[in-house]
Amino acid sequence: MGLANSFKLRNFLIGEEVIFSYPKFKRIMLTAYLALICMAVAFIYSIVDIANGVYYSWPAYVILFFMPLISIRFIQKKRYKAAKVILMISSNIGVFFAAINDPFETGVFLYFVPTAIGSMAMLEFDERWTGISLAGFTLFLFLLAYFGHFDKYIQPARPSEFYVQLSLVFNYFFSVTVSVLIIYFLTNLNRRAEKELSEKEELANLKNLELQKVNEELDRFVYSVSHDLRSPLSSILGLTDLARRTDDLKELDQLLIMIQGRVKAQDYFIRDIIDYSRNARTEVVHESVHLLSLVDEALEALRFNTNAQRITFIKQIEAGVYLISDKTRLAIILNNLIGNAIKYHDFSKENPEVEIGYSATTSSVYVRDNGTGIAPQHQQKIFNMFYRGAERSTGSGLGLFITKEAVTKLNGTIEVQSVAGEGSTFTVTFPPRV
Question: Which of 50, 117, 364, 376 has a CA positioned 20 to 30 A from the CA of residue 86?
């Protein structure tokens, strides 16, 4: 309710279309609240004075009631600094007039405290000299009222002792309440600023860690890419030189097959680089993905890989399974995992096979093979950039690294269970919404 009322007052004062920073908005609203408090105090004291037959402070009440209205009007006209200055000057003059007329025992001097604090609280840091000047004006009026001996010139009839005691209670209550509210406002504003600063520091630290990771990966990336791009080209140059020197058609055909293999390796490597760049730079796009169709597309793309035709592919996925995820990244994950299962097959076994399945219970996709498996000492490193853990590995060393990065982008996890010589199972688990 309080928040709703705050927005209603905001809309009344400054309109819905105006957007401020949080501190500026709160200071404008503080000005409006203090203006309303001044008007309420003037109204209450007017009633109390009428009830007690006291009329000498009415000029002060007129100032404290009508000048805040002018201040609110200036806020509506978006002249915020002028509104604050008008409110504080009029408040000081009103308190000063009451102080030189009321008996000292009423404690009206206490109002100089919230007026001084309010001068600094309402104004922003770049308006600090205006705030200091207003606070100095408050101090000047206090000293003038206390030491000025205006009782020689102004001699209103002394009110009753009941009125003096009642005024002391009221003055103490209102001045302390307003002072506490202003200090609470400053404390809350400072807490908000500290919280925002802390969040920004945490974000900056996180970005620094990410940047450090990117820089380290970039260093390794540039070094390895330059080597892996040059290596096939050097091989091709050597093979073409041999091809130019031979007249044996059988040997020439063999050399062409070797050249073709190096070109394919180069093509796979370039595709890995493209996948890495695409995953790192593009935003995640959530869409409905038919999982079985995506698996079929991956198998179709990989069916011409070496010896892929000799492997039995088993799909344990129901036709009605749809995932809400990024189709491009899911394709990268499936292509890399199925491609690795084909590459590290074991044809010494009677039935080399690769199983691709989906578990609705855990919201996970798995790729299981009965290939060569992964030795325990390599299982924690296979997701590192450019890591090649097997002697027969001819890939770029980017495949599983890119796979894990893609899974991370989707807020998922990837795990491997493998026994050397028996096979491997890679399981990708997605968040519940997927």
Answer: 50
